[in-house]
Predict the 3D structure of the following.
Amino acid sequence: MSIQVRVDRQKIEIQEEKKLTEVLKENKIELLDLAYKLSSGEIVHTDLVEDLANGKIVPASELTLTDRMRIGLHSGLARQHRREAFQIIKKDLLKNNQNSELLEKIDHVLKFDFSNPNDEGIFPVHQMAQAAELDATVCIGCNKCVEACQRVGINYLKLEGEGRSKHVVASDDPTIDCIFCGQCTANCPVKSAREQSQIQQVEMVLHDPELVTIVQMAPSVRASVGEEFGAEVGQNLEKKMFSAFRKLGFQHVFDVNMGADITTMVEAEELAERISHGGKMPMFTSCCPAWVKFVEFYYPEMIPHLTESRSPQIHSGGAYKTWWAEKEGVDPKTIRVISIMPCTSKKYEARHEKLKVDGLWPVDYVLTTREIAYLLKKNDIDLMALEDGELDSYGEYSGAAAIYGASGGVMESALRTAAFLLEGKDLEKLEFEQVRGMEGIKKAEVVLAGKTLRVAVATLATNMHTLMKEVKDNPEAYHYIEFMACPGGCIGGGGQPIPASDEKTAKRIEGLYSIDSSMKMRQAHQNPVAKEFLEYAKSQSDDRKFELLYTHYSPKKKGE
Ligand code: SF4
Ligand code: SF4
């Protein structure tokens, strides 16, 4: 049986498993394959290529090709590693004043093959803020990312070129901008469209004995990461993930769900305030950074409708670097918070200067569900074989937080707590079924404290445009609207396991609702950890309280 592999865009058929070096030679593809011994004894290979299935960099001479392997020979990452290898060898040669012939050869390669310090692949890597990137060098022109972006309703991507040179490019139309949702990355079969990886940075943090590491996992990840390990779709694997985090070396296992309970309380207070004392209505949720970017770029005039509440990962990250650090006597500067998210736009959000607390990022690095699965596999951690583990007590969360990952979940959580704030008692029935499900727009009327509220829940930018028009035509049409960029909400996020499908997303959603219904504590205002942090935040000066709980927005230009 023949074996089919792909090197960059070129399909190659071989008759048996072989080393990549051999296949490259047979196909007259040049790659300088030095294995140089440094004076320290370490061997440096120059024939580095990218195994596109997992982003691993490996020497071609050590890589045996198996069926359907995809190799990035000129991918941005492979070229970056090859350039670094040549530079290391050059430095060693200069230091030890040896082998002038080899030095000349390397100088030639660095000058002619890697002359630009920002040199990337055949096509430069196009970065969408800190969220996603397009490495068109390995693009096979399948159009899936273009369709995904069209489905979202943004149309930022298109294909250029013909035949084998067909590749993805970003739109230069000044009226169109990427919102960093990552749906293109969740639909690309060859990682040409992909998240901007922070695996390396997280590995460095985990190996630094001076640092205090905190990991916090988003609501959705626990119901989807199992797909990478053969589990049933929607299976809640949070307890195994808690064990896996400790095996990777994280010192404190907390949870973005705790942050979601803080967000719910802050947002519910604002909703109750706007309802009772008048404020810009309808109020919009703001915990999806792709949606916030959508408003800031496409509808800046609607910014006052966004709740001022920070998002869950930013609330909990900030809480751990301030209130928790003070309680535990830890220097906040030594803390590194790593979020595990189903989303690429959370990488972008984590780098907002305006969200810093006491001059520090609330979240230092963000890994997607796919990235954490890769890190576990790289460390030979078989998730399904692990014993259940426990969350550290500062990560405690309510059922209301667990449903944040599903479209309608943020609204349902906020309504549970807003009802408590307005009526002074808990609701008898906590479920708001009308706002659940996969539909792109859901509308409902709910009664809180004797007042009928018209609410809506939308996913995908196409539906956001529809609701924006409705709100502009009739500002009183709604009181409260939840928006999420991805199909089904965060659970269908751009950082989730590939391949993506609505059927899978619907099953993952069932997993989240069953976590909620199985919990004793199902309302954010019952969470003692979130409540204690809120009391702390509210006891601070106005400026610091703002830094801990709230944010502001501003119109954005293309690329910002
Ligand atoms: S991140 Fe989202 S908006 Fe940006 S190109 Fe990809 S699918 Fe389109
Ligand atoms: S999905 Fe990937 S391979 Fe297909 S066109 Fe887009 S970037 Fe290229």
User: Anything to note?
Assistant: The chain has three domains: 3-112, 126-195, 199-549. Residues 240 and 388 are 5 Å apart (CA to CA).
